[in-house]
Amino acid sequence: MSYEVNDFQTDVLDASAEEPVLVDFWAPWCGPCRQLSPVLESLADAADDWTLAKVNVDDNQSAAQQYGVRGIPAVKLFVNGEVEAEFTGVKPEHQIQSWLDEHLPSEEKSRLEEAEAALDAGNHEEAEHLLWPVLEDNPDHDEAQVLMARALAFKAPDRARVLADEAEVSDPTLRQIRESVRTIAHLRERSKDPSSLPENGVKDTYVAGLDALADQDLETAVEHFIDVVRTNRGYDDDGARKACIALFTLLGKDHPITQEYRRTFDMALY
Predict the structure, then answer these.
(1) pLDDT greater than 90 at residue 77
(2) Residues of 213-241 as b/e, b for ≥16 C-beta within 10 angstroms?
């Protein structure tokens, strides 16, 4: 089967709108290219979700220049006319397959991206609907567990904490979300027994914040917690400060509550 490109616009850019196109920039005089070529062709022959396009840089200098090809072999994955990922040089077949698995579009990746966007927009129920099929197929999917925990953090904090605790994540953002879920669950536990809280002039305000959190009145909760931060930041092991950070993290930076109260909170710290 010939994978040679006749027209870059048609064979790569236009075609990548239908399915991903893996482009191999090569030249006949390039020894490493001759090593890599049969590996890519073998993978392409077995694939049903992407195609291979081979671009001879001697015959397609403009395309090579446009996409910054400085050394060959250069491999670039095009999706919807844009470079999604790339690497240069020779790699063994198993490494290339792992690279493809990481970067090729999939329904699972789309669901995760859409769920994260829904969460950032405050649509937690929509995020749940997007994430359940992912977790049904793979209950141990760490990223999906953390995102689902974020979706459930306010209405089902105990379930959210279980999901967060089960997830093993190294990404800093996911780790922050996981810690925020744990904070909300802890605060909900505190709200069940206010008598265990230290007696202090800010206790009533703090309890009001906990009650608002339990009622999912998040704006009122933030207002009360900020008042506590202003007056006695260290109360209940810095609970009000931790609550605000957790709320802002789980709601997302573009949520109206975060937009309105984040600066006020930051000023209350000093």
Answers:
(1) yes
(2) bbeeebeebbbbbbbbbbebeebbeebbb
- Rounded CA separation 166/104 (Å): 27
Please give the model's pTM, rounded to 2 decimal places.
0.73
Helix 235-251 to helix 203-214 angle (10° resolution) is 30
* Residue of 33, 184, 202, 243 marked catalytic: 33
Considering the candidates 12, 21, 30, 74, report the single residue annotated as catalytic.
30
Tell me, what amino acid is at 145? Q
Question: Is 33 a residue of the active site?
Answer: yes
Query: What does each C-alpha distance from 110 to 85, 102, 107 come to in angstroms?
Result: 17, 13, 5
Calpha distance 119→180 (Å, rounded): 14
Ordered DSSP codes for 60-71:
-HHHHHHTT--S
Q: Going by DSSP bridges, is the β-strand pair 74-79/51-56 parallel, antiparallel, or unpaired?
A: unpaired
Q: Give yes or no: 244 in active site.
A: no
Helix (H, G, I), strand (E, B) or coil at 53: strand
Q: To which residue do tokens 């669901």 refer?
A: 111
Q: Is the pLDDT of residue 2 over 70?
A: no
pLDDT digit string, tens, across residues 109-158 = 889 999 999 998 889 999 999 999 999 999 999 999 999 999 999 999 99
> Alpha-carbon distance 125 to 151, whole Å?
7
Residue 61 identity (one-letter amino acid) = Q
